[in-house]
Amino acid sequence: MRLRLVAVPVLLALAFAACNKKQKAQTIGEGSMPGGGASAAKGASPLTTVTPITTPTPPAKVAVDQTAQVIVYGYHRFVNQVRRPDTEITPQMFEQQMQDLKNRGITVIGMQDFLAWKRGEKNIPPRCAIITFDDGWKSQYDVAWPIMKKFGYPFTLFIYTEGVRGGHFGGGEAITWEQLAEMRDAGIDIQAHSETHQDLRKPYDKVAKKKLSPPEYEQWLQNEVARCKETLEQRLGIKVSCFAVPYGFYNQHVKDVAKAVGYEAVFTVYGQPITFRSTMDSLGRYLIEGNKPKVFADAISMIATSGGGGAPVAEIGSSNIASKPADGETTRNPLPLISANLSAFGAIDPGSVTMRVSGLGVVPASFDPKTNTVSYQVTKKLRDKCSVIVEAKSGGKKVEAHWTFAVEEAGAAAASATPKK
Ligand SMILES: [Zn+2]
Q1: Which residues surround ligand 1, an ion (CB under 5 A)?
Q2: How much distance in Å is there from the Cα of 395 to the middle of ligand 1?
Q3: Which CATH code for domain 5-51+64-304?
Q4: What confidence tens digit (pLDDT) does each residue in 342-387 have?
């Protein structure tokens, strides 16, 4: 899938935030530079315990609730004084959001339960959320963890290994390997977020400041995707099965490499409700920014009234509905005509068609039974990422389709040309 440029300003800010840890202390960890790193990492810590990964007998398939829906949230830093609202949030606001999930009847589940549900091995409640923290900031240990304990919520850390304390980007605000081990022992799920947190689609290594030849790029990509997993597995004695692509940037090749090295799930930053049928190679997360609490609330509203206990839902893949704007497309028009062809839904009850748009809720869409087309002319400017859910009744069953597109803001394209290190 192509880069959605609209996300770039936010993502550049994340890049800056991620790299900022470096400013405090970056002298250690040269041995972990690409090309020489894993061996240094492997032998370095007294905590190195490699747990042999036993293969459990496959659990029996259970009748899982295929209508359950999951939203995934991503957070970065927890600070009392927000200076970079794109990656920071106050503990108070975070705690309130965790409370809101409880109040709205959304169950916070752990990553492993989610994966088991997707494999058809375990049931989950109808409406769930997964909480993830990116980039290994110390405040995730100091500030967020105690709040999560209060609620008894599980969560996942997405760690990029050179951002851990002592790594190339592991300055004073970075989490330490010891803290990670303590969290692991308490049952916190730890997953991979690359080695040096770069745009994995581009043959340029920002750390080495080097343009990469095709073979060099493949080796570098392998290090970012696979060696990161190995390092986490070996230093922490865990099994790593999920990969969050840095900045949410990916393409088919990045996904193929992630699959080939054994990841079960790849997460992005394009938030959308995840269903039983969502593909595992690009699971969208809602990144929460301190100045955009609406993103948090919108994500809840996307699952709050659909699914969960209603009639069985059949989901139609976004490739079968000729959606406009298309799934994954970046449009420059903030007032697009949103439309989809619902022929794949079967014989539709025309009165049952609803369209739901993130940030707007249910919109007054019209449905033309002659062409099977549902459409809605947006009247209020859209920004950022936009998820659409179309639902209808067909043969007494609820059928739905989801897709996501992005709206490019003026100037975003220019900004993308100057990545910050
Ligand atoms: Zn990140």
Answers
A1: 134-135
A2: 44
A3: 3.20.20.370
A4: 998 888 888 889 998 877 778 899 999 889 999 999 998 888 778 8
